[in-house]
From TrEMBL:
Residues 254-290 form the MYND-type domain. One of its GO terms (molecular function) is zinc ion binding. This is MYND-type domain-containing protein. It holds the Pfam family zf-MYND. Keywords: Metal-binding, Zinc, Zinc-finger. The keyword RNA-binding does not apply. InterPro entries: Znf_MYND.
Amino acid sequence: MGPPRASRAELLGLLSSIGVDLPPKTKLTDAELDKRLCKVLDSAQYLTRVVSTPPLDPAVYPPWSSQGSDMPVLEAIQRHNYEEATMIDVSKMHGKGDPFPRLYTNAFNDLRQTLMSIANACDQGMAPLVFQDKGEASGICMRVLDVRRFDDKTPIIIVVYQHDLKDALTPASFDWISSYVFGTAGRNYMANVTATVQEQHLLLRLLHGNRKRLASSYKPKRAATESSFTLSFLLPVGPLGAVDMGRYNANNGCTVCGQPAKQKCSRCGAVRYCDAVCQKDDWKAHRPLCDGWQGAKWQSLKFVSAMRSAPGTYAVRLNKYDNAQHNDAQKLLDRMTEHAEDDGPPPNTHGTTPFIVKVQLNSSMAKGPAHTLFRADPSHDEMQMLIYDQRRTFEVSVNRNDVAEAAFETVRQVVKKGDRGIKTFLWATRTAEWTIDVCLDKLPEWQKW
């Protein structure tokens, strides 16, 4: 039995909760949206790092507690990117509480919190769990059977589960709950976790996808009341990295639906559409920008990978969306040490649609959290621009020595005239694999990122 069906609006909302915002009128079918959601969840649990060649046989891995590690499963299940890790450190430093949004406002964040509840149940002796929304319209019965160690910081949590609806509680679920509530299974307690219907959609898709990856020979012992339950496993889940964020947010051109663009706005020439229907649908939203872009001046810039530094500098950039675990930072350092070649141009997630970028000049006087490690040398100030979008799916460098002097200087002067002196926000369009055009005289409002 597969996960429950979700409406189109629910699928788009679930994808958005993870950071995948598709065009508002995407022409992907509901089945394609569901398939993309499952792929996104696979990326969020870093599946290929653990299950590179299915099927997975948990029996070949040692029990979590067998190698003398004192790390609780609760600690090991957590995954953060660098932005979140910084927020946590700052909160601890100032004695504040949880820096994340409150519960029940984002289904994906709720899922990550629920995985922590499951991990806590592991540390407390494998307590059975029931997940229900506040209206009790949907529920999941679950018990952890075992925890295996993939590596020192990655547990594999083996579970059995069953999903029920309010009006369709199965006899098996009733017997299972009764066995724990009334102590016939040797216990008289059960963990109850509030989980929204949307969060349960995500959890069930994780469980359904992973159950198919288990080796058929793996048959752990389960209680008699769990004979009809489904066997699966859970892995740590964290935010999408920059590469995945770019891959799943990719737009093929049309600003409305994401389909390949065949025409552009005749007034401003900056926005493209697949057909006249999408252009008409977008006119009300596009008109204010269109009026401002008429007659705008654009400058073309050739860029290179952000990993390449300006002359006389050495740089390692840790994207705020990079994972803080899995030794990702060390891999970046290794690449710099080995002078690895660039991986190629960054993905074009914006298609031909204009998007806002931050343009920042390198400067020894720059303040704030450093994302670049510069060898201190003021003589190299303002020889390089770092350009990136909000989600860092596009993060590149423009070096003075790689472009026409007039082009670099023209953009530098626009940045210098801004309120902050070394950085500003500009409209941009991607014109080729290694080329971007930036608007020089129609600046967007100052962004808070």
